[in-house]
């Protein structure tokens, strides 16, 4: 099993980090897609392309303690039936004076899997774009240069059509 | 402990520290003892390098029982990348990178 830990320091409040993750209007801007759920333990969450309605990633809320801690399972929608494909993401949001330390722990990943490769490309981009979005109000061009991301593949398809 | 760019560049300006990051890239989530294996450096030197990398936020750590595991954290490098490269047309850079890799793979 593989595990990844990512940390970023953001000049903002824990509540704003929580909102950035859980509010589709915010996530769409720096992540590319919104996360939709009622964020209650046991509920489903979906990472959704709102223009097409396509679910890109899904899972279950395992723990929800706003605005400090969010734990969810993470699985590609076409592999939900296979429990071994379910990985886990933990968001730890910790206030440190006037900044927030955001830890993202992605574990229970199959060694060398496409998912492990994909998320290790994705999280550094998502987190640095989230930081810029919260600190300046403007997101980065999150997926620029990454031809493997869902967002880039969709764009290429749209352009080809 | 806010990571700023000076800390990132200083942390990267040392071959031993870059080597530690390479080791974490190959195998993420290692203990201090694992990272000391097969190194000419003393345990104290590795600890010192890891502390600098952690201060620059290039290494993230997590406690697992009594063990402290070290993870490669490329978020600050991505920020630098986005600042100077990400804004520009990247298709060509990617194409050059792919070409370089393809040529290097052909070398004996």
The CATH topology label of chain A is Alpha-D-Glucose-1,6-Bisphosphate, Chain A, domain 4
**Biggest sheet statistics of chain B:** 2 strands, antiparallel
Rg from alpha-carbon coordinates of chain A: 15 Å
Give the strand order, joined by hyphens, for the main sheet of chain A: 1-7-6-5-4-3-2
Strand runs of chain A, count: 7
At the first level of CATH, the class of chain B is: Mainly Alpha
Tell me the span between the first and last alpha carbons of chain B.
45 Å
Indicate the CATH architecture of chain B.
Orthogonal Bundle
Oligomer: heterodimer
- The level of helicity of chain A is 25-40%
* Strand residues, percent of chain A: 35-45%
> In total, how many domains does the architecture of chain B comprise?
1
The pLDDT mean of chain A sits at 92
Question: Structural class of the secondary structure composition of chain B?
Answer: mainly alpha
